[in-house]
Write a structure and sequence with these properties.
five-stranded antiparallel sheet
Length: 430
């Protein structure tokens, strides 16, 4: 790096001494840019994969935005060394995807298997021992692009087991809109929950466990709702300290709602109705506070805003709730999330739960002021600036930039005498 800097400096000096010259010019800065290098082993694997791919073929990732890698690692054959698993598509977009498995042999990566899959899109991918034989299995969900993607129509789940010689397909392929893995019956082994949409009927849920040579159905449940259009999130895990569940975030047109499904005495049942977690927006159910329990998001009209007729004019508060163990939800956390996804304010302190509203002098996409309901003291505020206006602002005024474009700057600050001042717990993330 030092030599490169010196070379650039010498070239610049020569240019200054010679004036404008047609024979001496500095290299284009972009020509010096190089992509970041991978660690040696991953670089070697990537080179092997590139050589093994057919001409025009490309690696593919899942549709899950959080799964950013096209190369996955899992110890499939139980020898203590992880294999590399890659899905790829050929130059012909109408062909099915292929699954490639590579092993580390003698210090190098070797392709040991290449298998045609069951669809043109890799919808979802999980690795776990679903068969109970002690080996990690591959659960590959294949899907399609286009209008059927949201509803999950035509998705197919294939379960593969690789023990070192051949790849075995476990059981029959299963049609699904979404699926999740969860220990519903508390036996320490995860079951496979398959979710499907029945047009003009509702949601069909089936719980399976692999037994013998196929998946055996343990329980099923129909959730009637003729207006369901798809599922934007299906997850599973604890919904209380001692209860596992399947949690579905369901779309009905432009609105959504959440349902929680548990297994009780061998029977699947929904423990909240559609109205309990109904909202006009996409809120993903997840563990937001790190306590290991899934929270259910709802939207709340701030106190004082109920008379506003246009919902787009109301800066809704986001409330995260936990199942109350009966038929309802109990709020545990509140925060403000920008409806356009530009920024998120940190949760309000727990001592202010249910005691924060938005001052009605606020205007969406211009200025928001959050105040205590009991004292009306302002806690924090968000303001939208033009770039020119922002140049006149300074950190001495307490503003923190949280989002910006070429035409807009969004900034935030806390009341220096308010509840968020001492520890700055309200500093948001963008």
């Amino acid at each position: 790096m030092r030599k490169m800097w010196l070379s650039a400096a010498c070239a610049a000096g020569l240019l200054l001494l010679s004036g404008c010259s047609d024979t001496l010019s500095l290299p284009d800065p972009t020509s010096l840019i190089r992509p970041p290098r991978l660690p040696a082993d991953k670089e070697a694997l990537k080179n092997v994969i590139d050589r093994q791919l057919p001409v025009g073929a490309t690696e593919v990732r899942t549709r899950d935005s959080q799964d950013t890698s096209a190369i996955h690692y899992a110890d499939l054959d139980g020898d203590g060394v992880k294999e590399a698993i890659v899905f790829y598509k050929s130059a012909n977009s109408s062909d099915n995807l292929h699954l490639m498995i590579l092993q580390k042999q003698g210090g190098t990566w070797v392709k040991v298997l290449d298998l045609e899959g069951e669809g043109q899109v890799l919808d979802k991918l999980e690795f776990m021992d679903i068969s109970g034989d002690g080996y990690t299995d591959i659960l590959a969900g294949y899907g399609v692009d286009g209008e059927d993607a949201a509803s999950g129509a035509n998705n197919v789940l294939m379960v593969y087991s690789y023990t070192g010689q051949v790849l075995e397909i476990l059981g029959n392929k299963l049609a699904y809109a979404d699926f999740a893995l969860v220990d519903m019956n508390g036996d320490g082994r995860k079951e496979l929950a398959i979710v499907n949409m029945k047009p003009n009927i509702g949601t069909d849920i089936r719980l399976y466990q692999f037994q013998g040579s196929n998946f055996q159905e343990l329980a099923s449940l129909d959730l009637p709702n003729k207006t369901v259009t798809g599922y934007y999130n299906v997850t599973s895990g604890k919904i209380s300290a001692n209860q596992n569940a399947l949690v579905l975030d369901i779309m009905i047109g432009s609105s959504t709602y959440t349902q929680i499904v548990i297994l009780k005495n061998g029977v699947l049942e929904s423990v909240i109705d559609e109205t309990t977690a109904f909202k006009d927006g996409l809120l993903k159910s997840e563990d937001v506070n790190g306590d290991g329990i899934i929270e259910i998001g709802t939207l709340k009209t701030p106190e004082g805003w109920s008379y506003f007729e246009n919902s787009a004019d109301i800066p809704m508060l986001t409330v995260y709730n936990q199942w109350d163990g009966k038929k309802g939800l109990k709020p545990i956390q509140e925060q403000y999330r920008d409806a356009s996804g530009r920024y998120i304010l940190q949760p309000f302190p727990s001592k202010l739960l249910g005691n924060v509203t938005v001052n009605t002098v606020s205007t969406v996409d211009k200025y928001l002021q959050f105040v205590r309901i009991d004292t009306r003291q302002w806690i924090e505020e968000v303001q939208f600036f033009t770039p020119a206006q922002w140049q006149n602002e300074s950190e001495s005024k307490g503003w923190i930039k949280i989002y910006s474009t070429s035409s807009q700057v969004v900034a935030y600050r806390v009341n220096p005498d308010g509840d968020l001042a001492a520890s700055k717990t309200g500093i948001p993330t963008s």
